[in-house]
Amino acid sequence: MKKLLALVLAVMMLASIAGVAAAEGAQTLTIVAWDANTTPYLTAQKEAYEAAHPGTTIEYIDVSSQDYDTKVAAMLAGGDTSDIYMVKDIPALLNWYDAGYAENLNDYIAGASYDLSGFVGMEANYCVNGEQIALPFRSDFEILFYNKDLFDAAGVEYPTNDMTWEQYKEKALALTNEAEGIYGTHYHTWLSTAVNYSVADGVNTLVDGEYSDLAYFYQLILDLEDAGACMSYPEISAAGLHYSGAFGNGNIAMMPMGYWYVATLIQHIQDGTYNVKNWGLAAMPTKEDVKAGSTFGNLTGVMINKASANKDLAWDYVAWLCGEEGAKVTAEVGNRPAWVSEGVADVMSAIDGFPTDEGSKAALLPTYVAIEIPGTALSGQISSILGEEHSAIMTREISIEEGIENMNERVGELLGK
Known about the structure:
Elements: H1 2-25, E1 27-34, H2 40-52, E2 56-63, H3 68-77, E3 84-87, H4 90-98, H5 106-111, E4 127-128, E5 131-132, E6 135-147, H6 148-154, H7 165-175, H8 191-195, H9 215-226, H10 233-239, H11 243-248, E7 254-258, H12 261-270, E8 279-282, E9 294-304, H13 311-322, H14 324-332, H15 342-349, H16 358-362, E10 368-371, H17 379-394, H18 400-415
Parallel strand pairs: 1-2, 1-3, 9-10
Antiparallel strand pairs: 3-9, 4-5, 6-7, 6-8, 6-9
């Protein structure tokens, strides 16, 4: 009996020790994000990481999207020790860096021999003074949507992933059928969908104060308007026509737009509210001196808080989230991860409703993604100036030459040139 009692006590002691050890091994990673309770990819990322890392719990601190940058600045200034902050806007990230809140990731990247190639240049937008202060995990880049049925009816070959802008123009003209109300292409009213392709060369930017590179794209779109190959800017503006419904109507053959439109397109085709049925994707066209597959887009990233007490754990999560494994989790719920690879493209193209042709899948592999507007202290003011002149050019109140001259002069004054 004494032996049995001793054995029971020994087992209980071992169980107690094991319980203490398990408790000591438990870790909580706090991540500050916006709309955490209503964003599917955040839930998917949390569940996948926790499943792959037993003992680690992710706790989101939810901040409203509308006030995110302002509230985060206040949290950091107040000494908040949350481990990771999601990065919504580059200007805000630069402010956090200047204030000393962003952990330099260089040593973590070097120590882990972390491969940055899958970001196809996007990580450079989070690099300041040689310090990598964040990494991207989402990127909705610009891509070309097209209506296969209209191409088939016109006997025109589908867009390719190495198409030039001149070839794009030829196709748009060939597909236009005024009698049947068919447009070869469509441009939304944003500056970005009209002329931001100039930054895809990795040289030009929209904050450098010199905008002669936009002239080619303005001439292209105005020529297409004059030929009736696309609706005019004033017509779209007056009608308040949204790009999603325009392409969904089924009478537009091509449309440059951000990748985010894929989810909307699939949903409305499946619920029967769109007329377009058979569609595909192609890489954005490029000028002849720009590498095929180059495009532009926006980023969402993650920054490690310098005040975090769990930096190694935070880095492990950042490396997982931003790399291929985390990218596949993000892609599985219909979002476009920043990481570019065949494996991620396989996941994205496997979503129900995605085109089954190889060309559309290959379009998910951009060779370079430039940032739409780099983050600087003056980015907001520059964007406003460009938007005003863009509207004047597209309504033909002024010529392309006059508009670009105004851009150069007004932004030049802002930059002190």
